[in-house]
């Protein structure tokens, strides 16, 4: 099954290039190409598109504003000549960010993320079963047993989660919400410290400036969860 895709860019040459890249990618189907985001909004009100390549800096409506206006579940990949917009783009949970001019190889790498996510969405029952020691998690067409003692932390993204464990170089990726997984984990062992992070309290070794450090990863403790986390520290502080 191909991913229905549209491209939006006010620059004719850039729009033509992205459209050609989409056409030559076997798992993508170009269903629309627009030089104005307002036309794309009109299209999406009647047609479906799962993946959107959209330029950020455009007149009338920027790619950021366009993305914020969307309803439903769309995968977004931003394209722009200005690197300074990258952070704002990722705050909107964009799948990727392509800096112009980009090659087909770079395009394919970004599109591959959408393909991988679509495959995850095609699978069902992400959390198979859980008890007080482990859970079975569906990840990339495999059912994996995950012992709670092996979990370091969990990162929640828009439509899926990454589970980081000891002894694994890469996280396990699963179509799920962090809220759903949180309900399956023992409260005395795991704590939400940020809207995007759950941590295994028994694995915390270093805390610095309201951040929990796991190797080279710094997990922020947001204001919403600071009081609860401080209570945990107070109980365990010498």
Please characterize this protein's 3D structure:
The structure is a single chain. This protein has 238 residues and is an alpha/beta fold. It has two domains: 3-122, Rossmann fold; 127-235, OB fold (Dihydrolipoamide Acetyltransferase, E2P) (Beta Barrel), CATH 2.40.50.1020. Helix content is 30%, strand content 33%. The chain has helices spanning 12-24, 37-44, 63-69, 86-91, 104-122, 178-182, 223-235, and strands at 3-8, 28-34, 51-55, 75-80, 96-99, 127-130, 134-139, 142-147, 151-156, 160-165, 172-175, 190-194, 197-200, 206-207, 211-214, 217-220. The protein has a five-stranded parallel β-sheet, sandwiched between helices. Strands 11-10-9-13-12 form a five-stranded antiparallel β-sheet. A three-stranded antiparallel β-sheet has the order 6-7-8, with no helix packed on it. A hairpin with a 3-residue loop joins β6 and β7. The longest helix is centred in the middle third of the chain and has 19 residues, at 104-122. The termini are far apart.
């Amino acid at each position: 099954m191909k991913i229905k895709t549209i491209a939006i860019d006010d620059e004719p040459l850039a729009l033509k290039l992205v459209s050609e890249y989409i056409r030559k990618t076997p798992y993508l189907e170009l269903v629309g190409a627009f030089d104005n985001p307002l036309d794309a909004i009109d299209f999406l009100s009647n047609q479906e598109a799962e993946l959107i390549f959209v330029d950020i800096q455009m007149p009338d409506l920027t790619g950021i504003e366009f993305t914020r206006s969307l309803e439903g579940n769309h995968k977004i990949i931003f394209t722009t000549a200005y690197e300074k917009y990258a952070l704002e783009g990722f705050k909107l949970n964009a799948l990727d960010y392509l800096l112009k001019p980009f090659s087909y190889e770079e395009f394919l790498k970004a599109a591959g993320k959408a393909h991988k996510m679509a495959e995850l969405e095609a699978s069902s029952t992400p959390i198979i079963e859980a008890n007080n020691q482990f859970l079975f998690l569906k990840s990339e067409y495999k059912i994996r047993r995950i012992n709670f003692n092996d979990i370091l932390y969990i990162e929640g993204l828009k439509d899926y989660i990454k589970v980081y464990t000891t002894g694994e170089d890469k996280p396990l990726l699963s179509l799920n919400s962090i809220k759903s997984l949180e309900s399956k984990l023992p409260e005395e062992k795991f704590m939400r410290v940020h809207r995007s992070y759950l941590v295994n309290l028994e694995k915390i070794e270093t805390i610095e400036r309201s951040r929990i450090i796991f190797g080279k990863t710094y997990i922020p403790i947001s204001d919403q969860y600071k009081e609860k986390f401080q209570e945990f520290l107070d109980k365990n502080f010498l």
